User: Fold SMI1/KNR4 family protein from Aeromonas popoffii.
Amino acid sequence: MVNVTDKTRELIFDIWDDYYYIVAAGDQAPTKNEVINFGEKYGVIFPEDYISHAVGDLGGFFIEVKEELWPYAEELSVAPFWEFLRGVYSYAYSEEAPEWMNIYIAAEQFKELGHKVIPVLKVWADANVYCYNEDGQLVKYFNEENTFEHVNKTWFELVEHELNELAERKNRKLNK
Assistant:
C-alpha cells in the first residue's frame, strides 16, 4: 500500500470562516490496522485516501454552521429541503461519538438491511449516505429507494464537494 497524505484539514480550511463549528477525532483516531480490520470484518476494502483521513486527527469530523447563525429547524417546520442541510460529517471510530455518527453502529445497521457496505460520509438531515462497498468503491445509498449509485470521486474529491456545497448553502442562508 502507498501512503497517502490526509487532506481533510486543507479542505476544511478552504471553506473555513467564523460561521462554522467543528469537532473531530483528535487523539481518539483509530490506527491504520484498526481501520483495515474493521473494513475486513464487513468485507470492505478501504482505499488509502480514506484510511489516511480516518486515522488523522480530523477523521470523524462533524462540521456545521453555528446554530446562532443558522438555527436548527423546529419540529414539523416547512422549508426548502436545502435549508435543513446545515452540516456534514464523516462517520467516527471513537466510542465517544454520538450514536448517529458512530461508524460501528451505522455499519451494523446496513448489515441488518442486507447490504455489504460501510457508511463513511453524510450530509446532516439527508437520509442518503455515502458508503464504501465490497469492491472498495464509493457509492451513494438512496434511502427511499434502498438502492446504491456509484460515485465517480475519490474520498477527498467527495469531501471537497460536500464541504463546498455546505459553504454554498451557508452563504445562501445568510444572504436570505
